[in-house]
Amino acid sequence: MADTPTPQIETRAEQPYVAIATRVPMTELATVADRVGEVFAWLAAQGVPPAGAPFFKYNEIDMARELLVEGGVPVASPVQGDDKVVAGVLPSGRYATLMHVGHPDELAQATETLLTWAAGQGLRWDMAPSEQGDVWGSRLEIYLSDPSEEPDMDKWVTQLAFRLAD
Q1: Do the beta carbons of residue 136 and residue 160 sit within 8 Å?
Q2: Which CA distances in Å does 137 have to 5, 72, 76?
């Protein structure tokens, strides 16, 4: 894994977004990335420009069964979703964050680094257990690299941003 910077805490403002929600087993997570292009196409059809980098938002995590994941894009102001996309607002608040430079396959290890660091700091996540798995208030993987500008996936920059409990 590439060198991983030290995690930090940042305060984030609320952020409207649109996404496609998908329930998948962990082995099929890549199919969520395949659908992010549909979100960009939907935005273009609506005449709404994206307002930031695409992301995965993990809503429910049960590693043994399925994940409920949204592949989304921020927008400048709230929009109305439809039968193709969901519209939502990422909540404001304090987030534990970690910047990762390297292949997306390394994100599990980067996530473990962030989780371990937060536990050592005595931080609690905006998360609650349920029958569907751990339900997160906001757990994001934000893909800051544009594949058309940086084709080498080993150089991609991804930010993990997990909301902390109030």
Answers
A1: no
A2: 24, 15, 21
Q: Tell me the whole-structure pTM to 2 decimals.
A: 0.92
Residues 81-114 pLDDT 10s: 999 999 999 999 999 999 999 999 899 999 999 9
Write the CB contacts of 32 (distance below 8 Å, at least 6 apart in sequence): 20, 22, 24, 56, 69, 70, 71
Q: What is the DSSP letter of 149?
A: T
Task: Look up residue 166 and give its two tokens.
Answer: 């109030």
- One DSSP character per residue, 110-137 reads HHHHHHHHHHHTT--BSEEEETTEEEES
Cβ–Cβ under 8 Å, residues 110 and 4: yes
Q: Average pLDDT, stretch 12-37?
A: 92
